[in-house]
């Protein structure tokens, strides 16, 4: 349980995270939405660190802020998407969004009220909690990921690789006018005679 100053920081980070998450979906400029998303990730990482899950906090900073959010920002800036026309039809999906929000809120209330309705702890734990005096949770998670779940870890890496390649393919437009692209074959076949002109300038008649 967080008490005193720790609880105050927890509520502060939680409030900023919720406010920035609301701004993500309400900002008119898509670039501003991505920047608010980065702010949300920062505060969520701070919440993880406050609760003792420093590995999840660092992963959230490195993966989501350092890669996913930056990727979103570049895709938004490089793709010529008419976001104004997309937001004009946002009200059509309001009933579905409200239904999903109600379901998520109900699940959160069930989780928060579990201690009052008699939900006990699970009978068995798959992996024991490490001793904080000898090992950190980061070391324990590393042992589990790279031994018991190495196959799923590799699959997740391949999914991220495919997403990165897909973003590059979407932003690559070889026929875009006014853009100069590198021609590797032409550069390799280039000769000195085609690149340099040797001019014999007489003395006193230079530039």
Automatic annotation (TrEMBL):
One of its GO terms (cellular component) is plasma membrane. NDH-1 shuttles electrons from NADH, via FMN and iron-sulfur (Fe-S) centers, to quinones in the respiratory chain. Couples the redox reaction to proton translocation (for every two electrons transferred, four hydrogen ions are translocated across the cytoplasmic membrane), and thus conserves the redox energy in a proton gradient. The chain crosses the membrane at residues 6-27, 34-53, 59-81, 93-117, 149-172. GO terms for molecular function: NADH dehydrogenase (ubiquinone) activity; quinone binding. It catalyses: a quinone + NADH + 5 H(+)(in) = a quinol + NAD(+) + 4 H(+)(out). It is found in: Cell membrane. Pfam families: Oxidored_q3. The lineage of its organism: Bacteria, Pseudomonadati, Pseudomonadota, Alphaproteobacteria, Hyphomicrobiales. Keywords: Cell membrane, Membrane, NAD, Quinone, Transmembrane, Transmembrane helix, Ubiquinone. Belongs to the complex I subunit 6 family. The keyword Transmembrane helix applies. It is a multi-pass membrane protein. This is NADH-quinone oxidoreductase subunit J. Its EC number is 7.1.1.-. It comes from Ahrensia marina. InterPro entries: NADH_UbQ/plastoQ_OxRdtase_su6, Nuo/plastoQ_OxRdtase_6_NuoJ.
